[in-house]
Amino acid sequence: MIRVVKGDRDTCLSFIEELKTRVGETEKSVEETVSDILKKVKSGGDEAVKAYSRKFDGWTPETLELSRTEMKELSKDCDPSFLESLRRAAANIREFHARQKQQSRIDPMGNGVITGQRVRGLHRVGVYVPGGTAGYPSSVLMNVIPAQVAEVGEIIMVTPPGRTGKPDPNILAAALVAGVDRVFLMGGAQAVAALAYGTESVPKVDKIVGPGNIFVATAKKQLYGVVDIDMIAGPSEILIVADDSANPEYLAADLMSQAEHDRLASAILITNSEQLAAETVKALYRQVETLSRKEIIEASLDRFGAVIVCESMEQAVEFANDLAPEHLEVCCQDPFEYLGRLDNAGSVFLGHYSPEPLGDYFAGANHVLPTGGTARFFSPLSVDDFIKKSSFIYYPKEELLKAADDIIRLAETEELTAHANSIRVRKEL
Ligand SMILES: NC(=O)c1ccc[n+]([C@@H]2O[C@H](COP(=O)([O-])OP(=O)(O)OC[C@H]3O[C@@H](n4cnc5c(N)ncnc54)[C@H](O)[C@@H]3O)[C@@H](O)[C@H]2O)c1
Ligand SMILES: N[C@H](CO)Cc1c[nH]c[nH+]1
Ligand SMILES: [Zn+2]
């Protein structure tokens, strides 16, 4: 079910290239489907979204929006202990993100000159909460809390009804706990298109954030420019870098924790220990039998899973930076030794007792993370995604006059005489 590759640096690198090509090929075949959906929603509005909901989710909505009363009614039987856990997780997420908040700045320069920067929340954002093959109440918190910390004007949440063809009560409960402004029951590329273009019932948003499957991620990519987006947060990925201090049972469990998200999810172990690699594979075969999403896990590991036995931990670090995974576990004797050299990862999990699901649900750091190698340049979802800034400048007359000759010279060098004139009229009149 999972390939094991052992070799020198070149052998490992060429295998890694092959893995990356596989991901790229899958994405290409989705591009056209998504582009078609976007066009149809742009011209067909609500009716097109409803037609796709019927087709992909087996859901025949009368209206796309859920009222607050409907949300309360649909979620009234949620397990109270689940809600308690959700509230504790929300508190950790809020605390983590509150520390990210940037303040507006006024910088008096002491001579009457004042410069500064005004920071404020975006006017209206759309948050995508996945729900096709599993419900993600945790993603409601991860999307909405940083938006609230940033003081976004209006938060519009979209989520598909999922396998049952009914709204997921736990997602709705999470939306009520988080305090989302409006909820629309729709998913996939059609939901992203509705948020980007606006429809009869869905308001057009300034930015779309949140994770989703390949259709959601591709739609966000294609709509960038019509609307702002946070990043490409597609099918989940885990890369584990481990030395012989690691426990193979833990490694197998952690690899499958991400493989279970999606047939397109990827799970890779890189180690310098042949014995650890062999024991992890054995543990994978044993543990998978006990898991409910066995079929998805096996499909994901078949195509996008790998165990790479390299020559040294130095190589493991090099390969990790090359792969730029969404999640990177460092299951080593001294994980902090590696932290400063691991430059390309959405989120890094250090040591034997910081498994990836700790970050998915509870530690407070965001679980909406870049995938597909885009951790080379994208960052985790944060409060920064929900703000915009403007700078401001105030000069009193005497300070402008002191600066006038410099400005005029710079403007004339660029042959922009109207710029120079704007300064000169103040100097001369
Ligand atoms: N990177 C991250 O931060 C992060 C976080 C959480 C989840 N995830 C990922 O989110 C994804 C959740 O996926 P999901 O499928 O359960 O839910 P989803 O909500 O992302 O996608 C479901 C939607 O996909 C669309 N769809 C399904 N099959 C289609 C087809 N053949 N053609 C066109 N559209 C189609 C449907 O419209 C459906 O509503 C997983 O890939 C998971 O790994 C990523
Ligand atoms: N691992 C996912 C991000 O790739 C986030 C998540 C939500 N629930 C469980 N896991
Ligand atoms: Zn997860």
From TrEMBL:
CDD domains xref list: Histidinol_dh (cd06572)
InterPro entries, A to Z: Ald_DH/histidinol_DH, Histidinol_DH_CS, Histidinol_DH_monofunct, Hstdl_DH
Pathway(s) of this molecule: Amino-acid biosynthesis; L-histidine biosynthesis; L-histidine from 5-phospho-alpha-D-ribose 1-diphosphate: step 9/9
Co-factor requirement: Zn(2+)
Positions of NAD(+) binding: 128, 190, 213
Keyword NAD: yes
Residue positions of the active site: 326-327
Enzyme nomenclature, EC number: 1.1.1.23
Positions contributing to substrate binding: 236, 258, 261, 327, 360, 414, 419
Domain of life according to the entry: Bacteria
Record's catalysed reaction(s): L-histidinol + 2 NAD(+) + H2O = L-histidine + 2 NADH + 3 H(+)
Enzyme class, spelled out: oxidoreductase
Amino-acid positions noted as binding Zn(2+) in the UniProt annotation, renumbered to this chain: 258, 261, 360, 419
Signal sequence segment: none
PROSITE patterns: HISOL_DEHYDROGENASE
GO molecular function, one term: histidinol dehydrogenase activity
Record keywords, A-Z: Amino-acid biosynthesis, Histidine biosynthesis, Metal-binding, NAD, Oxidoreductase, Zinc
Role of this protein: Catalyzes the sequential NAD-dependent oxidations of L-histidinol to L-histidinaldehyde and then to L-histidine.
HAMAP family in the record: HisD
Protein family: Belongs to the histidinol dehydrogenase family.
Name the UniProt record assigns to this protein: Histidinol dehydrogenase
Origin species: Neglectibacter timonensis
